[in-house]
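Exercise: predict the fold of this chain.
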Amino acid sequence: MRALSALSRDVVRELDRRAIEEFGIPSLVLMENAGRAAADEVRALAAADFGAGARGDVVVLCGPGNNGGDGLVVARTLFDHGLGVRAVFVGLPEELARSSADVRTNVRLWEQLGGALPTLASPDDVARLGSELSRAAVIVDGLFGTGLARPLGEPWLGVVRATNAAGRPVLALDLPSGLDADTGDVLGDAVHADVTVTFVAPKLGFERGRGPELVGRLVVAEIGIPRTYLDEL
């Protein structure tokens, strides 16, 4: 089978559109497939780190876009596998309220399991999170996906730096937050991932700029977009 070529953010966006509008696969299913594929890698990473001593829960950092929705699927899947997991929304409550219907559905499903989703926005919140991250079994970076093209602001910049300072295994969803998906530039700062589970295909930025040093071990997850669409592009 031919290896998948790296794609730009615009091509990835067009693949998503075609899969949803032409092929007819619901966007919520794509999100579910992405999160469940990543959860398998989180479990493997947590198991590999057990030799480092007793640790706390997996901490899933969810941003205001669909990458945060992927993170909530990860959290729910890990919970159903019996792992200790804590999900945190980084941003203001009104940003969560403005999120996509798919994200809001996954918020509801997570809360129906009894999971809390505290919002984190202030410097004090970031400081408290830093202490928690240093005890995490694994940190899951679900802050931003391929759409990010501007420098990170607060509180996300502080959370990225706290993640890097924690000294714990980090798994990034789709790409490390703060890495430009096309150029490989760092947008203020970026997560240093041990593992990146990217969806559909590698991104151009993984091979450019700072990408190679930030991505870590790369896993490409198939999430339901028809291979014929990829071949056409």
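Check your answer against the key: Residues 37 and 221 are 6 Å apart (CA to CA).
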